[in-house]
Amino acid sequence: MTRRAGITALGAYAPAKVLTNDDLSKIMDTSDEWIRSRTGIRRRHVAGEDEYTSDMAFSAVEDLVRRYGQEALDGTDMVIVATDTPDAMFPQTAALVQHRFGLQAGAFDLLAACPGWLYAVSVAKAYIESGQARKVLTIGSDALTKVVDWTDRRTAVLFGDGAGAAIVEAVEAPYGLAPMVIGADGGGAEHLTVGGTAKRLPSGTELKEKLTMNGREVFKFAVRVMNTSTLEAIDKAGLTPDDIELFVPHQANTRIIDAARERLGLSEDRVVVTLDEYGNNSTASIPMALTHALDDGRIQDGDRLLMVAFGGGLSWAAGVITWGGGRYKTAKESA
Ligand code: ACO
Questions:
Q1: What is the pLDDT of residues 211-253, one digit of tens each?
Q2: Which of 63, 76, 220, 284 could, after both became Cys, cross-link 162 (CB 3.0–4.6 A)?
Q3: Candidate list 250, 253, 281, 292, residue with the active-site label
């Protein structure tokens, strides 16, 4: 029988410090009304001055261990940390996680902007289904508030910090992940950047140290790929939109989420929205949203969940998972 990979355990973390829209309006020319009506965001959690992507990744894994016990990590052969804001170019954040939890595992970071965690899940799925690994610990952790330009109101209001962790391993049919959609279009590279070692992109566009974004172009791109990639993922799962019990999209903007939801013909109660509380947490947004949905009792075994994300690169990813096959625990059950 072919092995099928599924998600069997989850954990999440958000820093304690909160910045409300009103707080932001005191340091830049913006308002709660503008931010809420254009994005749906009310608050965002912000990493402490001395708190980094690795710290938040540790905390998300600790949350997972609190829920499922230390044995949930037994047999982990690979750690993948998806992030846009690694602590350093090396050591890779994933190696810090491997060491912290005493795992006998390979470890690498994956840079694919906001869809990074879904990319990591697709890699984990390949490892599991080919028999190369028994368990893969996938993490999305991002401290984007450390790379936003706090003088640019067009971007600074959008992002928050956080982390989510998930174990990917083999599960019994009918549970698990259907073939996923993974895509990129570097032709739109200049629309969303955070600088690295180069002064400019191959196209000549100057790179800045801080995050830059062409909001309108990213918005148009997002609405387009959320539509095409979700339909493609549903098709790869052999389903139709009517079969989807819960839609778990990347948490960037409620207008983008609503457009995708409406195109799929899904009612509002079938969508997970957490961005009002957290803003855009990049790679952490979907594993955090899944953990919240589980805690809220919104996910039952056998439910078909549709996940989708878009971001810098430009890049996107989508996939359907039939939930089940794990020992899921809500925060309340494991308290
Ligand atoms: N407060 C008040 N006014 C503002 C703010 C703000 N925070 N930001 C922009 N404005 C002003 C602009 O200056 C502009 O004023 P003007 O007309 O006088 O020039 C006006 O509001 C409208 O600006 P737009 O940029 O046209 O606003 P828009 O409706 O497009 O919303 C937004 C901007 C929210 C950024 C939207 O374009 C968007 O959501 N884009 C997608 C962004 C996204 O999802 N990024 C995720 C990337 S994921 C990753 O990989 C990191």
A1: 999 999 999 999 999 999 999 999 999 999 999 999 999 999 9
A2: 284
A3: 250
User: Do 168 and 181 fall into the same domain?
Assistant: no
From the list 114, 191, 253, 292, the catalytic residue is 114
Give the global pTM.
Answer: 0.96
At CA 160, angle to CA 153 and CA 334, rounded to 5? 165
Q: By percentage, how much of the chain surpasses pLDDT 70?
A: 99
99 in active site: no
- Give 117-153 pLDDT, tens digit per residue: 999 999 999 999 999 999 999 999 999 999 999 999 9
Ligand 1 centre to CA of 34 (Å) is 9
- CA dist., res. 36 & res. 24, Å (int): 12
246 and 154 within one domain: no
How do beta strands 18-20 and 212-213 pair? Answer: unpaired
Q: Which amino acid residue places its CA nearest to atom 23 of ligand 1?
A: 154
Q: Is 214 a catalytic residue?
A: no
| Boundary residue ending a domain (146, 172, 198) | 172
**How remote is the CA of residue 216 from the centroid of ligand 1, in Å?**
7
213: containing domain? 177-334
Q: How far is CA 83 from CA 24, 169, 242, 296, in A?
A: 25, 21, 33, 26
Instruction: Indicate if ligand 1 lies below 6 Å from the C-beta of 312.
Output: yes
**Known catalytic residue at 280:** yes
